[in-house]
């Protein structure tokens, strides 16, 4: 079985570092971290990760715009996307689910449990 790779797009460097350490330590996944949607879109096609963790609220280009760009590109639309968001009201959650993302993880979350939650969402 090959090692899973994840692209993490989040504008909070400290949070992204914690997530990356947890995923690498607990599951052995390879995690590439970028801190903006623009940077994520610039590398995703070459990187071809097994999944993307995508923060919703980011400056310049939010996660929804990034997701729409991913879906519009035939080279990236197959990559499963999990949204990371503090917007957890039912209308927000419904909007996100209607986009077609494979999962939503609410912030704040337990860093010790995030790897298991991702594995559950992706059936890894």
UniProtKB/TrEMBL annotation:
It comes from the Bacteria. CDD domains: REC_RR468-like. PROSITE patterns: RESPONSE_REGULATORY. InterPro entries: Bact_response_regulator (IPR050595), CheY-like_superfamily (IPR011006), Sig_transdc_resp-reg_receiver (IPR001789). GO terms for biological process: phosphorelay signal transduction system. The lineage of its organism: Bacteria, Bacillati, Cyanobacteriota, Cyanophyceae, Pseudanabaenales. Gene3D superfamilies: 3.40.50.2300. The modification 4-aspartylphosphate is found at residue 55. Residues 5-122 form the Response regulatory domain. This is Response regulator. Transmembrane segments: none annotated. SUPFAM superfamilies: CheY-like (SSF52172). Keywords: Phosphoprotein.
């Amino acid at each position: 079985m090959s090692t899973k790779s994840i692209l993490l797009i989040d504008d909070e460097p400290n949070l992204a570092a914690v997530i990356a350490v947890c995923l690498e330590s607990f599951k052995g996944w390879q995690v590439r971290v970028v801190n903006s949607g623009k940077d994520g879109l610039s590398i995703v096609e070459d990187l071809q990760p097994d999944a993307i963790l995508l923060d919703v609220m980011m400056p310049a280009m939010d996660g929804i715009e990034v997701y729409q760009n991913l879906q519009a590109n035939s080279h990236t639309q197959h990559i499963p996307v999990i949204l990371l968001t503090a917007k957890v009201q039912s209308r927000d959650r419904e909007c996100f689910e209607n986009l077609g993302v494979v999962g939503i993880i609410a912030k704040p979350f337990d860093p010790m449990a995030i790897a298991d939650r991702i594995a559950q969402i992706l059936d890894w």
